[in-house]
């Protein structure tokens, strides 16, 4: 069933582009978001799809109250920061989390004031100061916040971000801790993470993990690079993972599981991705509509919950984030 929605695509070097007609036509935001900036994080308010947040590299955080038709820059200490992830609390939209490099910020008054959180990541990793690639508010307990970091593993807060603990290593190699995506089953115990080694599943809140890789996409390489993970809002057993043969890679795949990650299959795409499948976009009010993008500019849409896909005519430069908002 066709669903009416707006799509947001954040890029490196090309700012933010918006389509209000399901990807048929596009407009680039030129003011006040700089048209040539990096936009790595876009999120839609869970309680109001007209409200959108966009985070940039160094140019701050912006908000639209009219689904991308007009933006305001938030006065915040995030100016000058690399904003890699944004999350809005579904139960209290005044609470916003922003993952940066390194660490994280929180606002409890809708973005008027911000505080740097005590997310004390390790600064001596192989890639230097780690990026906080994803922040996730646990749907089972809004007081629990998850943070995935670049080569520093998974962190958890039990008090809405006031204090944090680093969980045990995800795997035996340091690169298992290069966390790219997180997902939580809202009605169960499963916690999922993605890394250069594949998909990891924990049934004990991150204390231990099992791993699943996709070696057929790596052609003998030890890494089976996985990026974003998406859990279908109305069916947590249906998972999608963006996969490829490296970053940026030369090919990509959408991996699909129908049984909570026990078994996986490769989705059929009409045009082979030219790089790793990097990000997904969805919205609970659009359960059948899923967007996916590879790093080097291809965007795919599914209108049947990930069963089939079509590639959009429009191609971008380097895509880093996707978001969907119901019209």
Question: Can you summarize the main beta sheet?
Answer: 8 strands, antiparallel
Give the CATH H-level superfamily.
YVTN repeat-like/Quinoprotein amine dehydrogenase
Order of helices and strands: EEEEEEEEEEEEEEEEEEEEEEEEEEEE
Highest CATH level, the class? Mainly Beta
As a percent range, the share of strand residues is 35-45%
**Number of distinct helices:** 0
The average pLDDT value, as a whole number, equals 95
Instruction: Please indicate the count of domains.
Output: 1
CATH architecture: 7 Propeller
- The CATH topology is Methylamine Dehydrogenase, Chain H
**What is the straight-line distance between the termini?**
15 Å
Report the C-alpha radius of gyration, rounded. 18 Å
Low-confidence stretches: none
SSE class = mainly beta
Polypeptide structure, described:
The model has no long low-confidence stretch (mean pLDDT 95). The chain has a single domain (5-326), classed as 7 Propeller (Methylamine Dehydrogenase, Chain H). Helix content is 0%, strand content 41%. It has 327 residues and is mostly beta strands.
